[in-house]
Write a structure and sequence with these properties.
The structure holds two protein chains of two kinds. Chain A is an all-alpha fold. Chain A has helices spanning 2-12, 19-47, 57-68, 77-86. The longest helix of chain A has 29 residues, at 19-47. Chain B has twelve helices and eight strands. Chain B has helices at 3-9, 12-17, 19-25, 30-39, 57-70, 72-84, 93-100, 218-221, 224-246, 248-254, 272-275, 296-304, and strands at residues 107-120, 123-130, 141-150, 153-154, 164-170, 175-177, 192-201, 205-206. Classes of the chains: A mainly alpha, B alpha+beta.
Chain lengths: 96, 305
C-alpha cells in the first residue's frame, strides 16, 4: 500500500505528518475496505448458487466483508472528511 | 514475507478449530485470544521499552491480512488489540508498564467518547455505555472514550471544543452487555460495555489530541486513527483474498475462463488454460510491502501489452 509507505516515510522525519498525508491514508483504507467488499460480492456472483447457504465459506466471507464496511473509520463520511482536508477546507488533525 | 505474517499462518489450525465456538458464542474464545497474546499480536504497537514489538505499520498490516485470510473475526479481534496498543506510547510510564507491560496483556476498547468522566481529586469518576467493544470479553484492561464533565456540564477546552480523555479500567470494573447478534464478523464479540461509578486514577487516562506521545519513534508519529483504518483495510483485504483463492476451484467450474480479474494477482500472468487445471491455490501475494519502486509495476504492465 503506497499510502502506508508514504505516511511511514513522513513519520521518520522531524516534522509532524501532514494533514493531507493523514487524509490520503484514511482515504486509501476506506477505498480498500469498500473495494474488498465489492470483490467478495463479485466472487459470489461468479461462484453461483452454492454460496447462499448458511455455513458456506464464501457466504461467511461476504457477510464479514459487508460488516467490516460499517466501521466509522472507513465509513462513507470519510470521503467527505478527507475530501475537505485534501481540498484545503477546515479539518482538525483530531479527526484524522 | 514478514515473520509476523508467518506467525499468523502458523495458527491456522487453532483458528479454524475455534470457528464453531465463535459462531455459537459470537465472540473469540479466551484460549485463542491467549494464543494471539503469546504470539505478540496484541502488543504489536507497544513501545519496545515496555516489552512490545513496536512493529512498523506495514508489518502490522501484513500480520492482520494473514490472519484474515484464515478468519476475518479472529483477525478483527487481533486488529482491535494491536491498534489499541499504540496508546501505550501516550501513557505515563508507570501506567503503561502496568497495563501493557505483561507479555500476555490484552487491551481493547472504544475511542468514541460515549462515557462521562468527572474529576475527584487525582481520580476520574466514570460512567457510560460504549458500543462496538470488539474482543472486550477477552481483555484484561478496557479503554473507553469520555467527555470530561464538571457539575453535570461538559468541560470545554480553551478553543471551546469539549474536553475528552480516554480512561483505562480493569475488566472487573466493566459489565458486558450481550448485544452482538450479527450476520458478519460474528466471532468478534463487539457488544456493549458499561461502567458505573468507576474510579480511575488520572494517570490511567490519555488523550490522543491533547497529549503528545511520550515515546519518540516513527510509529508514534503515525496517526492512531490512520493505524486503525489501515488495520480494518488489512482485515478486509485478507478476507477478500481468501474469498478469491479458496473458491478458485468453484469459480473455475462456474465460469469457464474469467477474463476480467478483480484483483491483481499471479494468476493474471498465466494463460487461462493452465488455470483451469486443478491445482492447489498458491498463497496470496502480499501487497503490503512494495518490492519495486513506485510506478514500476504499472510501467511494466504497460510495456507488456
Amino acid at each position: 500500500m503506497e499510502e502506508i509507505d508514504a505516511a511511514w516515510r513522513e513519520a521518520q522525519g522531524e516534522a509532524a505528518i501532514s494533514l493531507s498525508q493523514r487524509a490520503r491514508l484514511r482515504l486509501a483504507a476506506t477505498h480498500m475496505t469498500r473495494t474488498a467488499a465489492d470483490v467478495v460480492r463479485r466472487v459470489q456472483d461468479l461462484a453461483g448458487g452454492a454460496s447462499v447457504f448458511l455455513g458456506d465459506a464464501l457466504h461467511r466471507r461476504l457477510n464479514d466483508a459487508q460488516t467490516a464496511t460499517a466501521h466509522i473509520m472507513i465509513g462513507p463520511a470519510t470521503y467527505e472528511l478527507t475530501g475537505r482536508a485534501l481540498l484545503g477546507g477546515t479539518v482538525s488533525t483530531s479527526e484524522l | 514475507m514478514s515473520d509476523w505474517a508467518e506467525k499468523a499462518r502458523a495458527l491456522k489450525n487453532e483458528i479454524e478449530a475455534a470457528r464453531a465456538f465463535m459462531d455459537a458464542e459470537r465472540r473469540c474464545p479466551d484460549a485463542l485470544a491467549e494464543m494471539f497474546a503469546a504470539a505478540g499480536f496484541f502488543r504489536l504497537c507497544v513501545p519496545k521499552i515496555y516489552g512490545g514489538a513496536q512493529a512498523p505499520p506495514h508489518a502490522v498490516a501484513a500480520t492482520l491480512e494473514a490472519l484474515a485470510e484464515i478468519d476475518a473475526s479472529a483477525a478483527w479481534c487481533a486488529m482491535i488489540g494491536a491498534t489499541t496498543s499504540a496508546v501505550a506510547a501516550y501513557l505515563e510510564p508507570d501506567a503503561a508498564r502496568e497495563i501493557f507491560g505483561a507479555p500476555g496483556a490484552i487491551v481493547t476498547g472504544v475511542y468514541a467518547p460515549m462515557g462521562k468522566a468527572s474529576a475527584e481529586g487525582d481520580h476520574y469518576r466514570v460512567n457510560g455505555q460504549w458500543k462496538w467493544n470488539s474482543a472486550g470479553q477477552n481483555s484484561r484492561w478496557l479503554l473507553g472514550g469520555c467527555m470530561i464533565v464538571e457539575d453535570g456540564k461538559p468541560k470545554l477546552n480553551v478553543d471551546g471544543s469539549p474536553m475528552q480523555r480516554m480512561i483505562l479500567a480493569p475488566r472487573e470494573a466493566v459489565t458486558f452487555v450481550d448485544t452482538w447478534r450479527t450476520s458478519g464478523l460474528r466471532g468478534t464479540g463487539s457488544g456493549d460495555m458499561t461502567m458505573r461509578d468507576v474510579l480511575v486514577p488520572k494517570a490511567r487516562s490519555v488523550s490522543l489530541v491533547d497529549d503528545r506521545p511520550r515515546v519518540k519513534a516513527p510509529l508514534y508519529a503515525f496517526p492512531v486513527f490512520g493505524l486503525l483504518a489501515m488495520g480494518i483495510a488489512a482485515v478486509a483485504s485478507g478476507n477478500a483474498k481468501a474469498a478469491r483463492w479458496r473458491n478458485s476451484r468453484r469459480l473455475r467450474r462456474a465460469s469457464a475462463c474469467p477474463t476480467d480479474e478483480p484483483w491483481p494477482s499471479a494468476a493474471r500472468r498465466k494463460p487461462c488454460s493452465r488455470r483451469r487445471k486443478p491445482t492447489t491455490p498458491a498463497p496470496a501475494p502480499s501487497s503490503w510491502r512494495r518490492s519495486t519502486p513506485p510506478g514500476a509495476r504499472r510501467k511494466a504492465r504497460r510495456q507488456s501489452r
